[in-house]
Amino acid sequence: MIKKGIRRQIVLHYFIVVFTALLLVEVIFLLAIRTYYYDSVYSHISTSVKNAERYYQIFRLYEEGNVNLLSDMLANFKLTNTELQILDTKGNVLINTTEFQSETSITTSDVPQAIAGDIGRWVGRQPSTNEDVMAVSKLTQLGGEDTYILRYTTSLKMLNDKLFNVSLVSISIGAAVLAVVLAFSMGLANSIVKPLNNITAVSAQMAKGKYKARVKGDYKYELGELASTLNHMAQEIVRSNQIKDDFISSISHELRTPLTSIKGWSETIHSGGFDPDETKIGLQIISKETERLIGLVEEILDFSKLQQNEMKLVMGKVALKELLKEIMLNMWTKAEKKNIKLVLESDENPIVIGDANRLKQVFLNLVDNAIKFSEEHSEIQIVLNCYPEQVEVDVQDNGLGISEEHLNRVRDRFFQVNPLNGGTGLGLAISQQLVEQHQGTLVIQSELGKGTVVTVMLPLSNENDSIS
Fold first, then answer.
1. What is the pTM of this model?
2. pLDDT tens across 253-266, in order?
3. Superfamily covering domain 316-459
């Protein structure tokens, strides 16, 4: 007995479908064979009766009232291996070819059919012999007014025996076909269940944290896709865990550095003995490092809100050119330290519908990254272009660029091209989601050693395309 499961369902379904089809074919075949043989017997008797009647009527010299008429008819109309009875129109047996005389009239359905003018036919069990027979009756009138019914009765025993043998052969063939189908369905079920069991076992290992486990085997079609998807999922989990570990290591360093500075200067100031200028420098460092910590924490909190769809945008009209000018002013000091020139190219001041603070956060991050990865004495261009239904902002630099390998992953959370540059690796991931919340797109094009272009596309406001 096959235990419950997919294997059992596949085998059972195949078996039921094939068994039903075979059963229908067997029934139709056996009925067709039975009908064919029975019709052949009926056709043979009917044809013989018609031929004999035609011959008898032409060549027999009929004499009305001849007492030898019935015996003469019996001799001329009889058939081999078939009992012939001559009946009157009331079904009484006048004479027959056997020694047994019927004491009752014949009431089977073939007699009324013959009286009605048809060649009657009846198949059933003969009471006197308890044997299956076929009776064929025909009304005949041989001159004068005397009308008789010729009734032929033939045994169906040999015919039924042949049909029984044919049925046995047919059933045997059906059983053989079912056995082959059963074996085939078992093989098919195993070809599906074994890979599924393997995939299930690997999934169980992954559920226990063993993400290095892989589904092995060259499976085809949906099973192959499932195995590949599971392996890819495990690979992504391993990569995500590695990125998470790198992030924890990086953020630990990022947090430790300002905290060390804050703690050191706090203890130094608390101990006293410093002049006002040194105390002022210490307090400035504490304030600066505190702001740095707040920025790191806020970045992590923003990412958490975006992941949980809790980020609420305060939508309004935003003059994009004015926003970009404000960003340039905010980043001017940082750019000056590396002698980097910030250039804004725009002839229009388009209006977009969005959250000014969040859009500012996006472009601050993009310009900050451009400054971070640009060489000294270089130039960063912020180009603003307007189109009929959207506005494009390009942040271009001639810095280090990003390799093709890293370009596909640079927007992944916690990923950093160079962890030594600091940060959480969340900036671009947050910017990407913020732009998408504004129904826009963020595209990065870069070539290692030649610089990077980050393009942000935002829909224009329907009310006003731009402000001059």
1. 0.49
2. 667 767 777 777 78
3. Histidine kinase-like ATPase, C-terminal domain (3.30.565.10)
